[in-house]
Structure formats: C-alpha cells, structure tokens
Write a structure and sequence with these properties.
CATH architecture: 3-Layer(aba) Sandwich
Shape: globular
Order of helices and strands: HHEHEEHEHEHEEEEHH
CATH topology: Glycerol-3-phosphate (1)-acyltransferase
Number of domains: 1
CATH class: Alpha Beta
Structural class: alpha/beta
Number of strands: 9
Number of helices: 8
Distance between the termini: 45 Å
Radius of gyration: 18 Å
Strand order of the largest sheet: 1-9-6-2-5-3-4
Largest sheet: 7 strands, mixed
Strand content: 15-25%
Helix content: 40-55%
Length: 253
C-alpha cells in the first residue's frame, strides 16, 4: 500500500484551515493587528466628508476598493453608518467576513459575478435602506486592479453613486507572490486614505456606455491608489495582465 505523507499532510492542513475555529482565530488575529496598525499610524484622510454628504443626499452609496488594499478599510469606517460588504463563500471570504463583523460591519455571502443571485438581491435591498455596500471588483480571483462590472450593475439598477477608496502606508510591504499583491502595513508609520468623487451610472446606459463607465471607474481607483503610494514615497503597484480580455469586458463579474 502506497502512503504519500506529503499529500496526506496537505489534505489535513487544508481541512484544518477550513474549520470555523481556525478561521475565527485567524480573523481575530488580523482584527487586532489592523487595530494596532490603525491606532499607531499617523493618518491623512481625504474626501471622507464629501463621501458622507453624497451618501446622505442619495440615501445609499456603493464603495469599491482593490483586493490588495482591503485590510485596513474597516478601520476607517464610521460605526454609526451601516455598511454591508459582499464577501465570497470560500475560506478567505469567511476570514474577511469574520474580520468585518469584529469591526461591527455587515456581510453578505456571495460572489462579485453573481449579479442575478440572492446575494445581489440582498445588496440592492441594502442600498434601498440607506445603507452603503462595499464591493471588491477585482476579487476573488483577479486580474489585479481590473474593474469588474458588478458595481456598475448595482449603480444602474438602484440609481446610487459609486465612490472609490484606497490607502497607502509608508512602512509596508507587498506580497508579490499573491495575485493581488496584498499590501501589509506595519505599525508606527504614516498613512493616507483617499475617497474619490462619486460616479453615477444612468439607468438607460447601453453596453458600450457601461464599458466607458467601467474604464472610467477603473482609472479612478488606480489613480487614487497611485497617488497614495507616491505620497508615501512608494513605487505604485501596476495592474495585473488580463488573460482573457473578452471575459473582462463581457458580462458582469
């Protein structure tokens, strides 16, 4: 009988890391680390007042951020304002959900390409209830820093505006072996967080117009990310390569 120890250990480790106990343990560790970084960092925050005004005026708003810069976003949130984030149902998504819930934020399980799913219905109901929703439009599989159409879909259907948010921290490093080049901030540093001007999508926009808005939103989020990096003295990260441009510009993901 053949016994592959390496394969067996990998299966066991995978099973362990999918357990609720381990996922909760990891999300708790990330939460406390994010709190430590947030409290010990000297922050410059731009555009947040205008963001809240737009939210109040429109009774709901859509927030988008890149996957690689999502770690510190819950720290900036005003706990008095309700937010629901779309998170995937796989292991990483469950960890993110645990982190968000510890920060007092709501989560809706689903995927950014499920525009006709129950998750999408819940998100649209949230927007109608004067709630913000947060979408990571390049997750959960990439390509990095390329805008999917799902935020445009929700904006078009609900009439709510979209704002981009990004941040950078002077003392940080990127995990370049991961698809998203996740930025890992270090404590006792300087940081900047920027929220962009909003973009509204007309209800009658056709497919070509939606593509124009998609590119505009992608450029805006990449621009504020680049500006944050330069402000902190970092080399700006670059978008990943689209392996299938047809898929990227096709149906919402």
């Amino acid at each position: 009988m053949n016994f592959n120890l390496k394969k067996t250990l990998k299966k066991s480790l995978r099973r362990i890391t999918k357990s609720d106990f381990v996922i909760n343990l990891i999300s708790s560790a990330i939460y406390w680390y994010a709190r430590l970084v947030g409290k010990t960092t000297s922050w410059e925050v731009r555009g947040i007042d205008n963001f809240y005004r737009e939210w109040d005026d429109n009774r709901g708003i859509i927030l988008v951020a890149w996957h690689g810069r999502a770690l510190m976003l819950p720290y900036f949130w005003n706990r008095k304002k309700p937010l629901n984030a779309l998170v995937s149902l796989h292991r990483d998504g469950r960890m993110i959900a645990g982190l968000l819930e510890k920060f007092g934020l709501g989560t809706i399980g689903g995927s950014s390409n499920e525009n006709a799913s129950g998750a999408a219905v819940k998100l649209m109901h949230s927007l109608k209830d004067d709630t913000a929703i947060c979408i990571i439009p390049d997750g959960p599989r990439g390509p990095r820093m390329h805008m999917g159409r799902s935020p445009l879909y929700y904006a078009q259907k609900t009439g709510k505006p979209i704002a981009c948010i990004s941040y950078s921290i002077a003392n940080s490093f990127r995990i370049t072996k991961s698809w998203d080049h996740m930025m890992i901030p270090l404590p006792f540093s300087r940081g900047i967080c920027t929220v962009s001007e909003t973009i509204s999508v007309p209800a009658d926009a056709d497919n070509n117009e939606l593509e124009t808005y998609r590119l505009r939103l992608e450029e805006q989020l990449n621009r504020i990310s680049r500006e944050c990096d330069i402000k902190m003295g970092l080399i700006p990260d670059e978008p990943g390569i689209c392996k299938n441009q047809t898929e990227e510009n096709g149906q919402p993901r």
